[in-house]
Amino acid sequence: MAFGTQDDTDEVMNEINVTPMVDVMLVLLIIFIITVPVLKNSVNIDLPRASSQPLEAKPETIELSVDAQGNYFWNATRTGDKELAALLKTAALRNPQPELHILGDKAVRYERVAQALAAAQQAGIKKIGFVTEPASKP
Fold it and tell me: What is this structure's pTM?
């Protein structure tokens, strides 16, 4: 007994199977039916027009240097401890508040840098940064 005869199935199929293509087209049709109403149903708002440009106010930077002997320099001008506190208080009241960059000599005692940092915090300076030089490559 033969499982299948070759007599009837030797013919070549001349038709293209379009079922997978129809399935893909139906899926695309459903996607477009769902997304098109979402894109077209937007709220029309007539926004007012303004002819102003954004204001980019960059805060001023203040350099507070501490040399090897422990002397303070406010933007390259030597100042004493009492004058430093007054300068920091006036800087803290400015709007926008300036950034304070502390440059400490590597030979200075850390105590002097810490005193300057404490005075800046007591005065109300919000942005304080330490400036260093990049390490040289060996």
Answer: 0.55
